[in-house]
Amino acid sequence: MTRAVVVGAGIVGLTTGLALRRAGIEVVICERAPEIRAAGASLGLWANALAVLDGLGVGERVRRIGARTDMRFHDPAGRLLDTPEFGPEDRRYLLVQRAGLNDLLADAVGRDTIRLATGFTAYAEHMDHVTVRLSDGSSEDADVLVGADGAYSAVRAQLVPGTEAREHPGHHAWRAVVRAPGVTVPEDRVILGTHGCRGGYVRTHDGGVYWLVNQFNSPPLHGSPKQQAMERAVHLDEGGREGTLAGLIAVTPDELILHNQVMLVPPLPRWVSARVVLAGDAAHAMSPHITAGATLGIEDAALLGRLLAPAGDASATDQLATDVPATDVPAALAAYQADRIPRYAHVARLSAAVEHAPTPAEFARNYVAFSHWMITTGHRAQERSG
Ligand SMILES: Cc1cc2nc3c(=O)[nH]c(=O)nc-3n(C[C@H](O)[C@H](O)[C@H](O)COP(=O)(O)OP(=O)(O)OC[C@H]3O[C@@H](n4cnc5c(N)ncnc54)[C@H](O)[C@@H]3O)c2cc1C
User: Fold this and answer.
1) Is 91 part of a structural domain of the chain?
2) 76 is a domain residue
3) pTM surpassing 0.85?
4) CATH code assigned at 359
5) Residue 95 CA, closest ligand 1 atom number
6) Nearest to 190 by CA among 49, 354, 53, 379
7) Angle in degrees, CA 187, 198, 95, rounded to 5
């Protein structure tokens, strides 16, 4: 039976663990934190990610902790920036709370497969297995090691040295979820403003509101995160008429406001060796202005599950028998890389087209062109790999 060690119990590590287990692979997930947790507030999952989660048997549970919504862009005067060349399905996504999603995935993969407070330190690759060294001094032997350990991946540092995550200069994000804010939010809205700012608010499934503010090419930051977010909200509200975003920021307790300098992983010349593979932000931490890093990472997980399924049996589900033929791991990983690198090169091109759009209307159009492409080809990538 094929055995896998997955490093990282974030969204992608947990989804990978689930996909591998359902493919009949024995899995151990090593997470350096003492508990399952999720940095960040809420997260948009697109149809391609939901299709994967459906295939893994957790889609309905995820929908129950999510709010269905649409990416509807407005300008700072409150005008809708319509994209009539695309359909409503290209703008539709599910807003989920990150911690709830990770908890749900940890339950689905099985808590007994997760070693908490166990960090990855190094690996040694051999002809027929890989030895994974861990922070408690122990080690695990496996047929394959999956590095799903995020943007600052230690697995990537060993596999592809010199590819440290780097700042996207001047690109910052502020966000929070406020419960019962006492501010009327009649609809979900994303506003494309001036000075490189964009932001908005989306109602959560349980009566809260997720708000976010982002800025490209920000000047140096001063003041508290709340003051920083407030300063930028001004660029999203022409004439100060709208007020909802500023109202939400104003009622958010300081300690709930998350601020991030956006970090990127540079394009990698390779994602795999014979027995080591990267998935999720470890391979492709990207700018959040296309809100798709986790969605695409969930695709990575599904593809690994399909390609590593014993004897290429993509239909294998939960077959934890010991008599299934072992997978040709190096061939499966080579196929994974051959699929992923071109796909992410295209993501980078479409992402740049959104980032450098000269007007809000073009930003909106390029954004929906990206989501349309991601959703439609995401399904095809799953089928191809199967
Ligand atoms: C502001 C912002 C908004 C975003 N919005 C969206 C969105 O709406 N939709 C979307 O699809 N994406 C979005 N993203 C992207 C998304 O957050 C990431 O792509 C996603 O969280 C990556 O998941 P991951 O599991 O790969 O990595 P992580 O979530 O970083 O998980 C990595 C895990 O590995 C563990 N780890 C690290 N090092 C070690 C080690 N040495 N040993 C063991 N464990 C280790 C960490 O503790 C962590 O649990 C957004 C990103 C940002 C910054």
Assistant:
1) no
2) no
3) yes
4) 3.50.50.60
5) 8
6) 354
7) 45
Strand arrangement, sheet containing 3-7: 114-115, 26-30, 3-7, 144-147, 276-278
**How far is the first Cα of the chain from the last one, in angstroms, to the nearest whole number?**
20
pLDDT tens per residue across span 89-101:
999 999 999 999 9
Last residue of a domain, one of 240, 262, 284: 262
Beta-carbon-side half-sphere exposure of residue 22 (alpha carbons within 13 Å): 25
Domain that holds residue 237: 168-262
Q: Of 212, 229, 262, which residue is a domain's last?
A: 262
Establish if 89 belongs to a structural domain: no
Distance 49 CA to ligand 1 centre (A): 15
Residues 174 and 205 occupy one common structural domain: yes
Q: Which residues line ligand 1 (CB under 6 A)?
A: 7-13, 30-33, 40, 43-44, 119-120, 148-150, 154, 173, 175, 260, 280-281, 288, 291-295, 297
User: What are the helix and strand counts (H, E) for the chain?
Assistant: 11, 17
**Which carries the bigger pLDDT value, residue 316 or residue 67?**
67
pLDDT tens digits, 288-327 = 999 999 999 999 999 999 999 986 454 444 444 445 567 8
209 with 181: CB under 8 angstroms? Answer: yes
Residue whose CA is at the smallest distance from ligand 1 atom 49: 10
Domain CATH number, residue 193: 3.30.9.30
Is the same domain home to 126 and 58?
yes
- On whether both 49 and 158 belong to a single domain, the answer is yes
Q: If you take atom 20 of ligand 1, which residue's CA is the nearest one?
A: 294
